[in-house]
Amino acid sequence: MEIRHLKLIKAASEEGSLTAAGKKLFLTQSALSHQLKEIETEYGVPFFQRIGKKMILTQAGERVLSSAKTILDEIQKTDSELKSFSAGDSGVLRISTECYTCYHWLSKLLKSFHTIFPNVELQIIAEATRKPLPYLLEGKLDVAIVSSSAIGMAERHSLRSTKLFSDELVVVTYKNHRLTKKSSVRAHDFIEETLILYTVQNEDLDVFQYLLNPAGVAPKKVLKLQLTEAIIEMVKAELGITVMAKWAIKPYLKNNQLVIIPFAGTVMKRNWYAATINSHNTPRYIDSFINHLSTKITF
How far is residue 193's CA from residue 172's CA, in Å, rounded to a whole number? Predict the structure, then answer.
């Protein structure tokens, strides 16, 4: 049995005659009559009985109609979805970042984007956080939000990156800490300090990669915690200092217990990008999402 036979059974049951069904399907009455005879001969059962001029489904016809409705509806749904994919208005958008704190501002932008593209399913790929570029290159991610330091030369040819914003890493201390007397902080200022950071390898942390390691400096002690809130509470308890993006620490400065101090020079200033695979077939909603980020992020 073919799709054309299912359409015949459905149209004839709805219209009550082959003539009316033919008009609906843009076929002649004789063509439909031939198709009907073809499948009734194949299965050895009638699908309609004629009562006067009206065609009424038999039990076998009812069974075929039930399947026809399901199959034809699914075909129509698939057709609509494929056309939506082609237009770039529907699909799945998989996102991750190299920094957990990015999710604080990203969630609001995801919500506002969803009102524009309600047929796009947004997925946060949490396991790709910290190392999103390998996931992106393996096709497991659609957009990676990363700082410039994360994009290596070998990856630049495969990726298309769009600048989103610039930020600055700062030192965060308790208000009575000795470093608050300084206008800026240099690498050697960390020698006697307990540095409280996220649970990430030192070589993947900007403060080590671009400041401490090049200067040959090591903090007195390094503590690693997973949560921003936990790090902040440790700093408030005067158990150490931390380094965070200026925008990430901003909500915690309201009670004046904490002080931020900039680094000397520009070594701890960063640019952030939305990276995607460099392709001519990128769905419209991905480009629209990146544009949404670049125009809506404000710190």
Answer: 12
The CA-to-CA distance between both ends of the chain, in Å, stands at 62
Q: Walk me through the domains of the chain, giving residue ranges and CATH numbers.
A: 3-86 (1.10.10.10), 91-164+275-296 (3.40.190.10), 166-270 (3.40.190.10)
Residue for token pair 């524009």: 116
CA 1 → CA 68, 233, 257, distances in Å? 11, 70, 76
Which residue matches tokens 């059974």? 9
Closest by CA to 231, choosing from 155, 272, 173, is 173
Give the residue-averaged pLDDT of 250-263: 93
pLDDT band at 135 (very low <50, low <70, confident <90, very high): very high
Q: Which amino acid is at 114?
A: H
286 is written with which tokens?
Answer: 């991905």
State how far the Cα of 256 lies from the Cα of 252, in Å rounded to an integer: 9
* Helix locations, 210-268, DSSP H: 213-215, 228-236, 246-249
